[in-house]
Write a structure and sequence with these properties.
With 309 residues, this protein is α/β, with parallel strands linked by helices. The protein has helices at residues 17-32, 38-44, 59-70, 91-100, 115-122, 140-153, 172-183, 213-216, 241-248, 252-255, 278-281, 288-308, and strands at 48-53, 74-78, 105-110, 128-134, 161-165, 188-192, 208-210, 222-225, 263-265. The chain contains twelve helices and nine strands. Bound molecules: phosphoric acid mono(formamide)ester.
């Protein structure tokens, strides 16, 4: 999605396969470099980046902060609670004021789907907008981190069998992942979960739907567990955490149903004993902390793309 000067990064839907590949290649170069390239630093140095997290975050906010600081940009972690938002200032007025401080980039996390797009429509065109997760709409940088993780482990993606398990209905991560993985050539994408948090209409995204975890994960190479997002549920959609774990919790016994080379991923935060057993989360198959490490390099590549095209 290209503005007059800067590029916005709002949804993977605006990226084609070539663009995804190019960001992952840049991230790979960054990940393996001891000293970041002169041109990378020169292009990002002293740019003013605002981390605007209107919703809690551990991984995304912090890895963006580290990424921006690695690029020698100036990072402001906007403190929502101590801001004039608490006195009733509107989101648009907050953005107008921060824009007047000569911002180069806004990184936005918001509980409202569409918030990043809304801000992109109001912010001046020379400010790049990065969506760090909006409601249940999209989490494009997480999807690229996850695509990077999968491509680090597997070279031939066409033959891969990949399962996403859990609260797909409320998951911005799942929506962005499905779009990204399909563009990367993964054909066998399975969504697994009960009807209440995985409606059949998700089939329209060209994936298969499974109600049984044991059937769904047969021979898969990648399992991505998702958190049950109680904060986005308007009513009780699951009987109990205990029953959910019995039916959909990823245990070591269930890992045996998968392919021998299976990797386990989770965007975090994880709920041990709900969607994933501790033994699996901490096993050698788990890429959960690698995803976090890769997040810095991938977000450095994304910030550079947004600031410099
Ligand atoms: N994956 C993810 O978005 O985690 P945080 O909420 O901690 O940023």
């Amino acid at each position: 999605m290209i503005n007059n000067k800067n590029i916005n990064f709002i949804s993977t839907e605006f990226l084609n396969k070539r663009e995804i590949k190019s960001i992952l290649e840049s991230a790979n170069e960054i990940f393996h470099s001891k000293n970041y390239s002169h041109s990378l630093i020169k292009n990002c140095k002293d740019k003013l980046i605002f981390n605007l997290f209107f919703e809690p975050s551990t991984r995304t906010r912090t890895t963006f902060e580290i990424a921006a600081s690695n690029l020698k940009a100036k990072v402001v972690n906007f403190n929502i609670e101590n801001s004039s938002q608490s006195k009733g200032e509107s989101l648009i007025d907050t953005i107008a004021n921060l824009s007047a401080m000569r911002a180069d980039c806004f990184i936005i996390r918001h509980k409202m789907s569409g918030a990043a797009n809304l801000i992109a429509n109001y912010a001046p065109n020379n400010i790049g907008i990065i969506n760090a997760g909006d409601g249940s709409h999209a989490h494009p940088t997480q999807a690229l981190v996850d695509a990077f993780t999968v491509s680090k482990k597997f070279k031939n993606l066409n033959k891969l069998k990949l399962a996403i398990v859990g609260d797909i209905l409320h998951s911005r991560v799942a929506r962005s992942q499905i779009d990204t993985f399909k563009k990367m050539g993964i054909r066998d994408i399975r969504l697994i979960g009960p009807e209440t948090i995985l409606p059949t209409e998700f089939e329209k995204f060209g994936v298969s739907i499974h109600r049984s975890l044991d059937n769904g994960i047969k021979d898969v190479n990648v399992i991505i567990c998702l958190r049950i997002q109680n904060e986005r549920m308007s009513s009780m959609l699951l009987p109990s955490k205990k029953e959910y774990f019995a039916l959909y919790g990823l245990t070591q016994n269930r890992i045996k149903i998968c392919s021998n080379d299976v990797i386990v991923m989770h965007p975090g935060p994880i709920n041990r004993g709900v969607e994933i057993d501790t033994a699996v989360a901490d096993s050698t198959s788990s890429m959960i902390l690698s995803q976090v490490s890769f997040g810095v390099a991938v977000r450095m590549a994304i910030i550079n793309k947004v600031l410099n095209g």
